[in-house]
Structures are given as structure tokens and as C-alpha cells.
Write a structure and sequence with these properties.
Blueprint: H1 2-38
Domain Transmembrane protein 106 N-terminal: 27-64
Organism: Pavo cristatus
Pfam families: TMEM106_N
């Protein structure tokens, strides 16, 4: 009786561990995506790619 209970506990723990691992992958994917988005030049929310920002001049970076 004790061994059957132990087996079910072990498989539940491994399922949780796998879920946690999957969550880490999603987190890394979102970090990569944010870094990729940060590399794009300035684009208005309208989808136009004309330079309308006098501060960054289309680079997306504010000079200091």
C-alpha cells in the first residue's frame, strides 16, 4: 500500500516539474521577443514607417 502511494506521488512531482520547465521556456521566448521588438526602428501605432518623432529621428532611441 505504501509503495503504490509513493509511485503516484513521484509521478505527480515529475508532472509538476515538467510544467515548471515548460513555463521557463515561455519566459525565455517572451524575453527574446521583447529584445527583438526593441531592435525595430520607430514606427507609429498607425503602422506607418515615416519618421514623425523629432527627438529620435526614427531610430527609436532618445539621445542623451
Amino acid at each position: 500500500m505504501g509503495s503504490a502511494l509513493s509511485l503516484s506521488t513521484n509521478s505527480a512531482a515529475s508532472r509538476r516539474r515538467r510544467k515548471d520547465d515548460d513555463g521557463d521556456d515561455d519566459l525565455l521566448d517572451s524575453r527574446d521577443r521583447n529584445e527583438d521588438i526593441a531592435k525595430f526602428p520607430y514606427v507609429e501605432f498607425t503602422g506607418q514607417d515615416s519618421i514623425t518623432c523629432p527627438t529620435c529621428q526614427g531610430t527609436g532611441c532618445i539621445p542623451t
